[in-house]
Amino acid sequence: MSLKLKFSIESDIDLKNLCLALENVENTKIFVNKKHVEPEVVGWFVDKSIKKVKIPNLRPGTSEIILEIPFNSKTNVEWCYLLGDFGVKVSGKHKKIVEPQKEFTFGNWVNQGLPFMQAMLLIIAQLNAMKET
Length: 133
Fold this sequence. Notes:
0% helix, mainly beta, Immunoglobulin-like, four-stranded antiparallel sheet
């Protein structure tokens, strides 16, 4: 028996150099817009058991990713992540991929296009200090 997980992705932009991060890659069939993707592991994400797999570029509009995994009473269904250079706009329960924001402010990243951020973000800031006389 198998379990199919279907993800619909709405995007305003072309998405290039994407990876899908997931566990159990060797037993997962990946389909992007109905085309089978042979998994090519290109590293790991957050934890060495979460492998990064390249997936094809996605065009603006709606795309679909389907993951098919073997399923039985001992199966653990784990999280998966879409990784790339993009932002996400959330409006209620609706989410859409948008252009990435290039400059950030300190504070809440949700309104800055990073509501699902699961990694480190390096912020480089220029500080101006006055010398005491």
